[in-house]
Specification:
single chain; 307 residues; alpha/beta; seven-stranded mixed β-sheet
């Protein structure tokens, strides 16, 4: 065999090897994309149906299990009921961050006045006496939630979460990073918000509820290594909530704002910046740490898919 033929055969072998490597890479990329697509999480930030601030998130897993975080006011309940009915008519898992009416009015309405099946409810609740003493006149809202959770069809399905607990729902993992803080009596109900880290594929979301400055500092002290996330739900609707250091530690690329237009613009009714809320300050913090996208309650129901 001539040296030219030998060279040609070597080139052919090299071409075949390179082609196989390229094919393996392409197949691997397509396979990973398929796996990630089928492991997706569909997340809807619910818009406010009244002029009030509220917080509600509707999550759907790869096998169409429905998960709700809070849900909003009584006035937001029909919007939430519509989402539930459009997605199979039942709820697998419901997380309640804390018992302020702008977070739990909708679930109270659903528990008291519908027969929608709810299979698991996760809470972190202080005693009725604690809410009466430290609830800043809103302890009755906690009482109403506790009474609703006693209805026969769900009272055995209510679980008090523990710090560090992991809850698996289909392809989604939830880890509890924050629970009630009865020792914090400043801004007490907000500072006893459940903090939840949601993980799917290699993406993560932190739901802060109405976490305040004090409970935010406790998170930094005890959970700092767990706080990094791609998405963050901005605490307390973006105003007078957690401090800048917490957001820097989370270092998100996307911020989810349960914030109506008047609060987003700090508008007390006399035009932009006529209010005393701190939303603009929080907006600047998040812009400075590199948030690339803001999903805002004022823009209505917004659904994103996380792969």
């Amino acid at each position: 065999m001539s040296s030219q033929n030998t060279k040609n055969n070597k080139r052919k072998k090299i071409i075949v090897i390179i082609s196989c490597i390229i094919l393996i890479i392409i197949v691997s990329i397509l396979l990973m994309s398929y796996i990630r697509y089928n492991n997706r999480l569909e997340l809807t930030q619910l818009g406010n149906m009244t002029t009030r601030q509220m917080m509600g998130y509707f999550l759907k897993t790869k096998d169409n299990k429905n998960i709700i975080i809070d849900g909003g006011t009584t006035g937001d309940s029909q919007n939430l009921i519509d989402y539930i009915n459009q997605n199979g008519g039942e709820v697998d898992t419901w997380f309640i961050t804390h018992p302020h009416e702008d977070h739990v009015g909708a679930i109270i309405e659903i528990l008291n006045n519908t027969q929608i099946p709810i299979h698991n409810i996760y809470v972190t609740l202080n005693t009725p006496e604690w809410y009466e003493k430290f609830g800043d006149g809103r302890g009755n809202e906690a009482q109403e939630l506790m009474q609703a959770l006693e209805v026969d069809r769900v009272k055995e399905k209510v679980t008090e979460v523990e710090l560090g607990q992991e809850i698996q729902v289909d392809n989604i993992t939830f880890k509890i990073l924050g629970v009630k803080n009865p020792e914090i009596t400043e801004n007490a109900m907000n500072n006893s918000s459940m903090v939840i880290k949601c993980m799917v594929n290699n993406k993560s979301i932190i739901f802060l509820g109405d976490t305040g400055q004090e409970s935010g500092e406790k998170l930094l002290k005890n959970q700092r290594e767990q706080l990094k996330a791609d998405y963050v739900q901005v605490a307390h609707h973006g105003q007078a909530g957690a401090g800048e250091e917490l957001y820097k530690t989370i270092s998100p690329k996307v911020a989810m704002w349960p914030t109506p237009d008047w609060l987003w613009n700090n508008d007390s009714g006399q035009g932009e910046d006529s209010g005393t809320w701190k939303t603009k300050e929080t907006r600047a913090w998040l812009e400075n740490i590199g948030v690339k996208e803001n999903i805002i309650e004022k823009d209505g129901n917004i659904t994103i898919k996380i792969y």
